[in-house]
Amino acid sequence: MRKLTKFFGTISVLCLIGLVKPIAAETVDIVELTKNAGYEVNPDDKPKSSIVVDAYTGRILWQDNIDEERDPASISKVLTVYLVMEAIQKGELSLSQKITATKEDEAISNIYAISNNKIIEGVEYPIEELIKMTLVPSSNAATIMLANTLDKDSAAFIGKMNAKAKELGMNHTTFNNASGAVAELFQGYYQPEGYDASKPNQTTARDLAILAMDLMNHYPQVLQYTNSAVVKTMEGTPYEEKFDTYNYSLPGAKYGIEGVNGLKTGSSGYGAFNYIATYEKDQMKLVEVVLGVGDWYNQAGEMIRHTFGNAILNYVLEHFSFQTILPAGEHNFDGHKITTNQPLQMIVENGKKPEWEVANKRVSIDLPGVFLKENQKNPSVEVVAESGFADLPKEPEKRQQTLQVYIIQNAFAFAVIIGGSILFLLVLFGESRAKKRRSHKRK
């Protein structure tokens, strides 16, 4: 009897959780999903963690093990580029500013064990070209040149990286180097004091999504360097180089998807194969992070990561779309009229029509969700005019209707809850009566 009581109690709780759990976080078998998408994959190669987010709001549309700490490898370079773009915005640097390569820079570019391009001592490299070299061929030499431009003290620069990560809300991220390659691989040419030269950087899929989303929204010009399958650097000079992208999800690459326009790949013995994809098409604006695919010793992982990532991305694109919840203009609200100058829009699961609510002279979308950060929320637009009452409500007045609609949409779950609860109480009542009978017999 106790087991039965526990069972129905558990069922009731799970159903309640199901009502507030967003569809965005539902669990899907990644291997089966990828096979159904037409890719032949080994279950042992599946990602250790993955996430897709709405880059407008930070709302999570797909998640799997997103808070496991992992080595991002060369994806680390994205934060170095972020700091460069921030300095450019502040007027401290410019894209055309030239950096003269040193003997040490050239030596780093010749280290076989780490990804690079050819850097020549004495040549002046515009910062814009160094950004391309950092993001596409994943040049460690170019990355260190950028880092040294911002701060000649390599340890101080890493301190800036960690401070920026904390500021952005990357709460499970620690940097020990500027490029993603452990410092001991630089043969003494890069030695950040106070940092373990053998220790890789650590982060999570969630934290990298936070970084990529912020970069995408504040420095979208970076994507012009990452949106092509083939990139040339120092074009028209004796030092021109041509690189094929490692991001095979870009249009024109082996596993290209229209709409993918960035961002960065990374791989290492510690972290296996990783990448961040950014996507913009049909008003959909997404960030995808895929970490820990395959085995470093099987370099096919460079391709395999994109089969899993593409399957996940296409799944999201099939199930979600950018929708107008409330067009701009005049609307009736609880018998009154309100006017908005902007449409209320959001990426929403197909087939769902979220309610909207009014409070504090704003119209917002009333839809439960899971976000990257606590301070993120559904979009809202300003009410520019209202008639029929002096002040709009200070608290949302649409929630009761929303709850009613939600109950109707989830009638089965509510029926299970109610039925389970009644049965739960009956079982408890029966146990209580049985105890009383036993007690009378003992007397």
Task: Please give a structural write-up.
This protein has 443 residues and is α+β, with helices and mostly antiparallel strands. The chain folds into two domains: 280 residues, 3-Layer(aba) Sandwich (Beta-lactamase); 61 residues, Spermidine Synthase, Chain: A, domain 2 (Roll). It contains eleven helices and 16 strands. The strands form five sheets. It has a five-stranded antiparallel sheet, with helices on both faces. α1 runs antiparallel to α11 and α5 packs across α6.
Kindly summarize this structure in a few lines.
The protein is 35% helix and 21% strand. The chain is an alpha+beta fold and 443 residues long. Mean pLDDT is 86; it is low at 1-25, 392-410 and 435-443.
Question: What keyword list fits this structure?
Answer:
Spermidine Synthase, Chain: A, domain 2; five-stranded antiparallel β-sheet; Beta-lactamase; 2 domains; disordered N terminus; alpha+beta; 35% helix; 16 strands; 443 residues; 11 helices; disordered C terminus
